[in-house]
Design goal:
It contains twelve helices and no strands. With 234 residues, the protein is mainly alpha-helical. The chain has one domain.
């Protein structure tokens, strides 16, 4: 697992993938932060973090689109399937390498908060809540991207499929206003990623929401392992 993790981290910096992701993410997030805080003359970052979820829909697939699809395309998948490495270790290494790249990038983007903190009165508790929530959502999105990447050898297909899935999950929370059924509205709110994020936007660490994000991440990583188990014994 450790060897694969190190290989994946190096691959992000030896190929344009990591730099493209970091460049696009930092540029778009800097623009959003300027627009929603500095230009709006406010120290409230909640709008910025809400919009950041939409940025995830387009940028995170850049990290995951080649995670497993490239292995299949290059033929190295068979080497991994016949090696003694456990499948959960393989999938975990792919996930943590992409997640590490995300954490590095979100850490760099945190520098955007410094000017606001110097000149404004920042609610630190609320800011930390927003950061925790946005990291949990990223975990979910990355695991979904890895699962979709395991289904195809085409990186573009993996990227577009992930964008479609993430866009659906992000828009799901808006659908409850379109239904008159209280039961359906409750189900949608339970499943919607953005609806559960609202707690964190107000600086509230909701354990049930955190468990939801962790559970979704675990489910999609498990599904990725199952996909490879079927290929190993096919």
């Amino acid at each position: 697992m450790t060897a694969i993790y190190k290989r994946e981290i190096k691959a992000y910096f030896k190929t344009p993938t990591g730099y493209v992701f970091m460049g696009v993410f930092l540029c778009v997030s800097a623009f959003l932060c300027t627009l929603t805080t500095l230009h709006a003359r406010t120290s409230d970052f909640s709008t910025y973090f809400q919009l950041l979820v939409l940025v995830y829909v387009v940028t995170l697939p850049l990290l995951t689109m080649k995670s497993l699809s490239e292995e299949k395309k290059l033929g190295t998948e068979q080497l991994l399937l016949t090696s003694p490495i456990k499948l959960w270790g393989l999938i975990a290494a792919k996930f943590f390498s992409a997640f590490t790249m995300f954490l590095i990038t979100i850490g760099i983007s945190s520098a955007f908060f410094i000017p606001v903190a110097v000149w404004g009165n920042v609610n630190v508790g609320r800011l930390i809540g927003c950061l925790i929530g946005i990291i949990l959502i990223a975990m979910c999105f990355i695991s979904i991207g890895i699962f979709i990447s395991s289904l195809t050898e085409n990186q573009l297909t993996a990227a577009m499929g992930t964008i479609g899935a993430l866009a659906f999950l992000s828009a799901l929370g808006q659908l409850d206003s379109l239904t008159s059924s209280e039961l359906l509205s409750t189900v949608i709110n339970r499943l919607a990623v953005t609806s559960r994020y609202e707690y964190f936007l107000y600086g509230i660490f909701d354990i049930s929401s955190a468990l939801y994000y962790i559970s979704v991440t675990a489910v999609f990583l498990y599904l990725s392992v199952r996909v490879y188990e079927r290929r190993r014994y096919a």
